[in-house]
Design a protein that fits this description.
Helix content is about 85%, strand content about 0%. It is mainly alpha-helical.
């Protein structure tokens, strides 16, 4: 596969992912919350806005990670290639955003639980799973950033060698 094709494909996947996440966080979650507040569990209607704010707070780092991901994907077909210091920095940014999400989710779960609207099953099963996934993405991005940094240093040393 050509680098330009790879870049276009990665950009397309990223755009589709952003559209899906926007539909989930800004349409499906609010609609589900309204349904729960009005039909299924009106006794928890007071928790609609705190839960929605929590979902949006969780979504912010995900959407913020799109910008460095776009830059990384663009650099694949750039003359300098994918192994640049900027890409290593962008991977670290993505890692830190994933770690932030690993903190936002349980904090939100505790906040919702303190309102009396938490679910023990959700807390016990979903929270550790989400935290693990966020931490796994963060660790993978940090490791990739380190490998890209190492590749940049090797290339610089190789360029200096005659």
């Amino acid at each position: 596969m050509k680098k330009e094709t790879m870049t276009k494909l990665l950009h397309a996947v990223l755009v589709v992912a952003v559209l899906l996440m926007a539909a989930i966080f800004f349409w499906a979650v609010p609609q589900f919350g309204l349904y729960m507040a009005e039909v299924e569990a009106p006794e928890f209607a007071y928790a609609y806005w705190p839960c929605l704010i929590w979902a949006w707070a969780f979504a912010l780092p995900i959407f913020a990670a799109v910008v460095p991901a776009w830059r990384i994907f663009t650099s694949i077909s750039a003359p300098g290639g994918a192994f640049t210091g900027a890409n290593a920095r962008d991977l670290r940014i993505i890692a830190y955003l994933a770690f932030v999400d690993a903190v936002i989710f349980p904090v939100g779960m505790v906040a919702v639980g303190s309102l009396g609207a938490g679910s023990p099953g959700l807390t016990v099963i979903v929270t550790p799973a989400v935290m693990f996934c966020c931490a796994a993405v963060g660790i993978a991005a940090l490791c990739l950033g380190r490998l890209v940094d190492d590749a940049v240093r090797l290339r610089e040393e190789n360029d200096l060698t005659i």
